Every structure is written in C-alpha cells, then in structure tokens.
Amino acid sequence: MGTDQPFPTEEGNADPLLPASMLTTLMKMVHNTTVQNQSLLERVGAMEVAMAYAAQQREAEAAGRRDMTSQLAAAQSTISQLEETLAQERAGREEERERLRVCVNVSGGNGQAGNDTSELALARRTLLVGYLPTSQAGPGLSTHLDASRAYSAMQARYPGIPLMEAVEERAARVDFSSHWQGYDHESEHTLTSRGFAPDTQAWSAACNVAGQYGMVTFDRPVVLVGVATRGRPTCDQWITQYGIEIFDPDTRDWVPVEEQRQYTGNTNRNSIVLHAFGAPVVAKQLRIVAVEWHQHVSMRFEVYVWRY
C-alpha cells in the first residue's frame, strides 16, 4: 500500500493535515451535492411553474365564474323587467275586459249576456255603454278623399284603442252574394283597389237586384265600430243606399246593426263614405246589403274593428 502524499496548498506547500485522497473524496461529495441541489432546484422551479400555471387557471376560472355571475344577474334583471311589463299588460287587459263587461244587450236575446260567456253569446249584437265620452257617442257620417283619412277619422273616435282595417289587412274572410261574369274580385274590393281592365276594379254583382251583399267573417267575435264604402273607380257604378247587418246566433238570423235600417251610400266613383256606429258592436259576421244603386251594384268597402 502506497503512502498518501500531502495535498499541496495554494502557496505550493504540502498540507500534512489533509491527505489528497480525502480531499478528492470531499470534492466529489461537494460535486454530487451540487448536482443534487441543481436537480432539486430544477424540480422546485418546475413545481413553481406548475403552481403559477395552476394559479392562472384558478384565476381564469374565477374570472369565468364572475362573468357568469354577472351574466346571470343581467338575465335576472331582464326577466324582472319582462315580468313587470307582462304584469302591466295583464293589468291593461283586465281593465279592458272590465270595460267590455259593462254592456247592454239589444238583440232581443235572453238578457243574460253578462252571465253567459260562450262564443255565441259574445257574438250577440251588444252595445258597450259607459266607454265612449258623451261628446263622441252617437253615429257618425263623414266623407273622405282617401282611405287613410277615413281611418284617421274613425281612430279619432277611439283614442287609445288601436283600430284595424279588417278588409285591407285580410283579417277576415270576405264573401259576396254573386260576381259579375265569374270574376272573384280576389283583391279588388278594398278601398285602395285600383285595378286595370278587363277586371272590374271593385266588387260587381252578377245582376242588379236588391239584397246583393258583401260579407266579412271573423274567426272569433270582434268589436265592430264602423264601415266605409266607395264606388267602382273606372265606371259610374256605386251603391247609393245600403243596410248593415250582423248575424245573431240567438235568432239564427241577420239583424240590423242599429235601429237605422238604411244608410246613405256613395254619390260618385271615388269619395269614401264613412259610417261610424253609435257604439261598438260585438259579432263574428257583418254584411253590407245593397238597397239602391247607380247604374250597377258595385262597391269597394272596409270594416273597422278593435285590433286584437
């Protein structure tokens, strides 16, 4: 066995207290410890990176939850607003129903319209009293140059209640007692009709006899407030006197819409004659019946109802 040589110091002197083999071993141990520390530091660094990523993920999830909470709060606010709007609309409808409930039956029925809520009972000829101000009560007759002015005049009688032009808007089925030479007048019977030859540009009856009519049928009872008529735009043909009738399901017959049996009609091709009823009438069917005419039974017409 050889003898350990002393490890030289920095000054080149041998250190008799620290053999070279021991110093080598110590250096190896220091090196191994350094390597281990570096590995540990690397693992710690990786763990820190992983923890930072996890923290970012948690923050992103928390932000997502906050955003979702904000969206839910906004949705709940919108729902609350919608519920409030619906409640107001419901209250308005209830108020309108209460107005409609106060009515007087004038059709000669059983006098119990307030108790019978069946569709047939609602379709009776019913005057709604207590709704219209006294200054606006009673029938109205006026002449207008175009359909929009006639509508505005009718709407002025019912402030706050939107009206509908049932014929123009095709809100009801329209039928006629007969047609001239087979024309069906599919779109020629409205107040705004301005067709072209050879069409009749209006409803024209097959023959000139009293009792020819134009009729509207709704799918449920509606509140009727008036009618308007106009002549044929390309010929001197118009109805000068007519009746207005509604179908009474109690008697299963047509009855006059008011005590007035005949109404003044037109005097030329294009002026619109507007008849506003003295009070609203509830029915499913209404017809305008020709009584007298000029040259031929021809008509364009409109029926005004409360919008539903």
How would you sum up this structure, described in words?
This protein is 31% helix and 31% strand. With 308 residues, it is of the alpha+beta class. The chain folds into two domains: 16-101; 130-306, Galactose-binding domain-like (Jelly Rolls). The strands form three sheets. Strands 5, 6, 7, 8, 9, 10, 11, 12, 13 and 14 form a ten-stranded antiparallel beta sheet that branches. Strands 1-2 form a two-stranded antiparallel sheet. It is rod-shaped. Mean pLDDT is 77; it is low at 102-118 and 120-137. Keywords: Coiled coil. InterPro entries: FA58C, Galactose-bd-like_sf. It comes from Kipferlia bialata.
Topology summary:
Elements: E1 6-8, E2 14-19, H1 20-101, E3 104-105, H2 119-122, E4 126-127, E5 140-144, H3 147-155, E6 163-165, E7 173-176, E8 203-204, E9 213-230, E10 238-248, E11 253-256, E12 263-264, E13 272-294, E14 298-306
Antiparallel strand pairs: 1-2, 3-4, 5-13, 6-14, 7-9, 8-14, 9-13, 9-14, 10-11, 10-12, 10-13
